[in-house]
Amino acid sequence: MEIQQLKFFLEVVKYKNFTIAAAELCISQSSLSKHIKALENELGVKLLERSARSVKLTEAGSEFFDFADGIIQSYNEMQVKMNTYKEKNKKKLTIGTIPVMSQYGITSLIVRFTKQHVDIDINIIEDRSPEILALLDASKIDLAFIRTIALPGDTYKVNPLIDDDLIMMVPKGHPFAKKSCIDLSEASKENFIFLDSGPGIYDLCVEACKTSGFEPHVLYEYSRIETIIGVVSEGIGVSLLMRRVLDFFNNQDIEIVELSRKFSTTIALVSLPHKKPSDTVKKFTSYTKEWVKNNKL
To answer: Residue ranges of the HTH lysR-type domain (predicted)?
Structure first.
């Protein structure tokens, strides 16, 4: 039994659908099915009841889910703990980030910083906003790249870095595709495809719709941008996403439509205000500010 198999199993349970889970995991549906079947064969029990439209847990599967979820949580905690022992001769910096590193140039920033500071070992943990903030609160990470919209009150020390605006994504052939700009209220009857619910872009999208005078009909929620782009390109609905994110993917099967009213958020480098920053944290924070300024992000 492998950790990867447990992660695959949890994704299938999460989405109750092999096709969606496979898309989220970026593997083929047949490959995912083989992994789950191998897991069931090894255990000697059936974990999932499959139907044409959905998947549900068997009694054994329900109990196995609790064990698998606990193992994955322990595995992630173990990785964090073990990283503290790795290469003790190096200075350590653990950074948490929401899944936007490539879209906002954070990957390039970290690569260039490590080339200039070979004595510093950087560990990256990527997750959703609530999980990243929980790690920061527990001092399991030193810094976090996160959207300011996900921050509760004035709890953290915030270094604003990159602003971004919400825009609409529609399939080719959609009536909005012919327009360069719309008022969001014009989309009140549309089916929306949003990122997973929770603090962050989902809340920003819902609030933007409410501000424009309507409650959005959210047809689907996904955790991966690629999945949302694919679903929208098939004409199933429209979506609201950040400009820089869509510019990064540059997909030719969708059209981007500006919103007449701006709805913005900011990527920030966040730390705990009561915790004295190490020299390594100070170096990285200073380098990040200068890098953003020089690259005019």
So the answer is: 1-58
> Measured between alpha carbons, how far is 76 from 82 in angstroms, rounded to an integer?
10
Helix (H, G, I), strand (E, B) or coil at 91: strand
The class of domain 91-161+266-295 in CATH terms is alpha beta
Q: What is the CATH number of domain 3-83?
A: 1.10.10.10
CB 95 within 8 A of CB 140: no
| Two domains, one topology: 91-161+266-295 and 163-265 | yes
Q: What is the CATH number of domain 163-265?
A: 3.40.190.10
- Global pTM reads 0.64
Residues 6+ apart with CB under 8 A from 168: 176, 182, 184, 187, 238, 239, 240, 256, 257, 258, 259
Beta pairing, strands 157-171 & 254-259:
antiparallel
Residue with tokens 């549900």, as numbered in its chain: 56
According to DSSP H, which parts of the chain are helical? Answer: 3-15, 18-25, 29-43, 59-83, 106-116, 129-137, 201-211, 225-233, 243-249, 279-295
| 263 close to 168: Cβ distance less than 8 angstroms | no
Alpha-carbon gap, residue 284 to 286, rounded angstroms: 5
Q: Measured between alpha carbons, how far is 229 from 251 in angstroms, rounded to an integer?
A: 8
